[in-house]
Design brief:
With about 950 residues, the protein is α+β, with helices and mostly antiparallel strands. It is built from 29 helices and 22 strands. The strands form 7 sheets. The protein has a 6-stranded mixed sheet with strand order 16-17-18-13-19-20, with helices on both faces. It has a 4-stranded antiparallel sheet with strand order 1-2-3-4, with no helix packed on it. Helix 22 packs across helix 29 and helix 24 packs parallel to helix 29. It is elongated, with a radius of gyration of 42 Å.
Length: about 950
């Protein structure tokens, strides 16, 4: 039998074995070549690289005769005849410096031991103490790519069974479960404790005092145990006259009782204010550019101890007048005197209460919690806590809502107290602060007649006690109308039709041909007269504007003028209105031609108003009342924010669940066998010429760390859009409270702290499961957690800011879009930082995401310094690579690096990330202070 060619050589040599394949994909392409040499593992000693420059077996026989073979490498064989050991190096030569093809450390070169595997870096899950040996990673150790020694896992970083990386998924799940359980227990047990404490306080009050008249009259009513509290119709509103009842007040009540108003059965508990405020206005005027004059020539004196009603048709300026009286709007003309001296009402806002038409309050809290918070924030600091809470009890009883004090106010999503009770809570929040001046915008709107009487009667008691009470009223019933001491009737354009005692209004209009018909409600009838619905019985040319002229020359008007002067004044007003419209039209045409000038004018005006607003809180105070300072307000506001969270615990639990789900999705985007980082081996600098040549041609560096961070940022951004709920839903409450002196800084600090305190838990839920993926970062968990916590802090700042800039419906979208722009443009995870201009690099450093990406990347690169030149790969950005070791125009890893500053320490990256993340909260504070600053009054 004839021998094969290989057998005829008499050597232990294989020349017809299958060609080797990739170590990581055995069905893939051939192993990488070295220049013209093809890898020949069957004729290669372990720890070396051997190959042939031809595919002809006759030309690839291992030999030391370089003229007889195209083979080169290191191959040890035995002559089957003599038994002699022969070492072939072929065209690679035999040199002491290892230029015979020896593999460098961190590589695995199995050679003839495993002919199916190519020469490559030691694969993950194994370590290679030398190039010829590959050992599976032992338990409690992890072995990333190119490991020459296993790395010990410590503390919670329990290694996975695969040995690929640290932190076992089981540990992550246990930690997450503990976090969820503790959070849920705190939230729901805290909620139960709050409810139980409220019930205990109520029971203690019931034991120590006589039951309220509501409980006496309705012994079977258990509505106070139901958060709905819809029992306004059943409340008996009987009350007795309080102390200090004037003869005029007695007469009004007698008239009310004569037509069936309920008799009162209790004495008033309303106490006198600390000071009295009398307001005297003289020809008040308010002109708004592009709108016109909406308040003109109103004069009169609003005295303490009086209950004044402001009435008029829509557009008459009732709310405008109320805003002028409460200091929310600055007049553009006329004079305003407080206690006989010209002054700004903002100097008295500590003793001024303003009840808006809408029921603005924290809907998650109970009736008592809302009223008590107002009392604790605004009553004098000299008062003890017990005294302030007694004041709360007085007001709740006065408005007959003490039986629902422990019921949640509720909103459209959560059932709470009735609309009438909510309206009374709205009023109680101002009455409780013992105001000297109380302004109310339609406090009886939406109330039934009985409840309206209860509310107005409580206001009457406040007036009797010495307060100055002014309220806008909309067609009250007769009994309610008679409770008012004075009434101001305004017509279209904000001009006075009548101001004087309620009892004198009938005779005033009768003299002018408008007697009130029998059995008609005077309030309804006179409103019809003001609106022009009722014609003059004797003058067919009568116009509703004639009522202004009548008042100007009426005897009841202290500042009356002659009929001729009144007619001239009306003609001047009509001429002025016409000229104003023409001037506005001309101004519009001019400003359209000078758009830039208009824009500058608007910016200048707005900036001037902002500067004035910033100083408005530090102006003089003439009340003598010392209210809680910044720190005390912060404590009370933080306590309320925490109480809000306990009242709605599911929202916080939902945040944790969403963070957990988002973090769980990210690892699925990375293949379990994927190497996130393969650098430029250090042996490229110090290896032999053959080693360097092989690595230059075949090592393909990978830096997927910035790409991983891009995915992390995107998912973290999406779930952090929930931060728009920190400020957004209670924006109107914020305006109401800052208008009466609440510190913007205290509110900002309390809400920010309440949100930030939960971010570590959210970060844990986001990090832990994702961090236990097969292919993921191998840096210590603590560094990864710290940077992601700061990223979440910054993203929450985005959401908070968006909620202040736009409406609730668009805030989340704005935060998301803005966050994506920042991630793509300024995180350093997409555009290489080293490629940017010096100005671009400087601007990028203002963003916390850059410091996070640089810090996380640098920390991750540290884990690979044992085998790779991480600095060189980082510097090889698309436009900044060198050709020192390159073939042709590029070097190994050209264009892969991101150009981070690896000399920047971990502490510096972390500190700068924290500084730039928390800087967004300063922007939020500034926005809180300046955005919609007119509403802070």
């Amino acid at each position: 039998m004839s021998l094969s060619y290989c057998e005829q050589l008499g050597l232990d040599y294989k020349c017809d074995e299958p060609l080797p394949r990739s170590a990581f994909n055995k069905s893939g392409p051939l192993c990488a070549s070295l220049a013209e040499y093809l890898y020949d593992p069957a004729n290669c000693d372990p720890g070396f690289w051997s190959g042939c420059a031809s595919t002809d077996p006759k030309k690839c026989i291992p030999s030391n005769d370089t003229n007889a073979t195209l083979w080169g490498g290191h191959f040890t064989t035995i002559n089957v005849t003599t038994g002699e050991t022969i070492v072939f190096t072929g065209r690679f030569g035999d040199s002491d410096d290892g230029s015979d093809g020896s593999c460098p450390l961190s590589y695995y070169c199995p050679g003839k031991d495993v002919v199916e595997m190519c020469v490559d870096l030691c694969p993950p899950k194994f370590y290679c103490p030398n190039p010829s040996t590959m050992i599976e990673c032992p338990e409690e150790y992890y072995c990333p790519v190119a490991s020459s020694v296993p790395k010990k896992c410590e503390n919670l970083e329990t290694c996975q069974e695969t040995g690929l990386r640290r932190f076992n998924v089981g540990v992550a799940m246990v930690v997450i479960l503990i976090i969820l359980i503790v959070s849920i227990l705190y939230l729901y047990c805290g909620r139960y404790a709050v409810i139980r404490s409220a019930r205990a306080r109520r029971e203690a009050k019931m034991r120590n005092k006589i039951p309220s008249k509501h409980q006496i009259n309705d012994p079977d009513d258990d509505d106070h145990n139901d958060e709905s509290g819809d029992n306004d119709e059943d409340v008996n509103n009987n009350e007795k006259k309080g102390p200090g009842v004037t003869e005029e007040g007695e007469e009004a009540e007698e008239q009310a009782y004569a037509v069936g108003a309920p008799k009162q059965k209790r004495r008033s508990t309303i106490t006198s204010p600390d000071m009295t405020i009398d307001i005297e206005c003289e020809r008040l005027r308010l002109t708004i550019p592009k709108v016109g004059t909406i308040m003109r020539g109103v004069s009169g004196k609003l005295e303490h101890g009086k209950l004044t009603a402001i009435m008029g048709p829509s557009g008459a300026g009732k709310t405008t007048f109320l805003s002028l009286m409460s200091g929310k709007v600055d007049r553009t003309g006329g004079k305003l005197r407080v206690n006989g001296e010209e002054a700004n009402l903002t100097e008295f806002r500590r003793v001024i209460g303003f009840v808006p038409q809408e029921d603005i309050m924290m809907r998650e809290l109970t009736v008592e919690e809302n009223v008590a918070h107002s009392a604790l924030m605004r009553l004098p600091v000299e008062w003890s806590y017990q005294k302030k809470m007694e004041r709360v009890d007085e007001i709740l009883e006065s408005l007959e809502i003490d039986h629902v004090r422990d019921s949640v106010v509720g909103d459209e999503k959560r059932r709470g107290i009735s609309g009438g009770q909510r309206k009374r809570v709205n009023i109680a929040m101002e009455m409780v602060v013992k105001p000297s001046l109380l302004c109310l915008d339609e406090p009886t709107s939406g109330l039934d007649s009985t409840t309206s009487y209860t509310v107005v009667n409580s206001l009457k008691e406040m007036a009797r006690a010495g307060a100055n009470v002014i309220t806008v009223l909309h067609q009250p019933k007769y009994e309610v109308f008679q409770l008012f001491d004075n009434v101001l009737l305004l017509g279209k354009g904000g001009m006075t039709v009548y101001y004087g005692p309620t009892s004198g209004m009938a005779s005033y209009f009768s003299k002018r041909g408008f007697p009130c018909p029998a059995f008609s409600n005077p309030a309804d009838f006179y409103m019809d007269v003001l609106s022009g619905i009722i014609p003059h019985p004797d003058n067919p040319k009568w116009d509703k504007e004639d009522l202004f002229e009548e008042w100007m020359c009426a005897d009841e008007n202290p500042d009356s003028i002659s009929r001729i002067d009144a007619q001239k004044t009306m003609e001047e007003i009509r001429a002025e209105d016409s000229q104003t419209k023409e001037a506005d039209a001309a101004e519009d045409r001019r400003e359209r031609r000078l758009l830039i000038g208009k824009l500058c004018s608007v910016i200048y005006t707005e900036l001037k108003m902002v500067i004035h607003h910033l100083g408005s809180n530090v102006g003089p105070d003439h009340t003598g009342r010392k209210t809680p300072g910044t720190f005390t307000q912060f404590y009370l506001l933080f306590k309320r924010a925490n109480l809000q969270r306990l009242r709605s615990p599911f929202a916080t639990v939902l945040n944790i669940i969403l963070m957990f789900l988002a973090g769980a999705v990210i690892p699925s985007l990375v293949s379990d066998d994927e190497n996130l980082y393969v650098g430029i081996p250090k042996t490229l600098e110090g290896g032999t010429e053959a080693q360097q040549a092989y690595m230059r041609e075949n090592v393909k560096p990978v830096d997927a760390i910035p790409g991983i961070m891009l995915n992390v940022y995107l998912f973290l951004l999406i779930v952090s859009c929930l931060s728009v709920n920190v400020y957004g839903p209670e924006r109107v409450v914020f305006f109401r409270e800052t208008a009466v002196g609440q510190s913007v800084f205290s509110y900002w600090a309390a809400k920010s702290l309440d949100a930030i305190l939960w971010l570590p838990i959210y970060t844990c839920a986001f990090v832990l499961l994702g961090y236990s993926g097969q292919a993921w970062l191998i840096q210590p968990l603590r560094s990864y957690w710290f940077f992601l916590f700061l990223d979440l802090v910054g993203f929450y700042g985005f959401g908070m800011l968006a909620s202040l800039l736009v409406g609730a419906g668009s805030a989340a979208l704005l935060a998301l879009v803005f966050g994506i722009i920042v991630i793509v443009g300024f995180s350093g995870a997409v555009t290489a930082y080293g490629d940017q201009s010096s100005g671009g690099q400087t601007f990028t450093t203002f963003w916390f995401l850059f410091w996070s990406t640089q810090g996380l990347s640098a920390k991750e690169y540290e884990q690979f310094t044992y085998a790779f030149n991480v600095t060189q790969l980082n510097d090889e950005t698309p436009d900044k690579y060198n050709n020192e070791f390159g073939i042709g125009e590029q070097t190994v890893g050209a264009g892969v690096g991101m150009g981070f500053d690896l000399d920047s320490s971990y502490a510096r990256n972390l500190g700068m990330c924290a500084l730039t993340a928390f800087a967004w909260y300063i922007i939020v504070l500034w926005t809180l202070k300046t955005k919609d600053h007119r509403k802070h009054r």
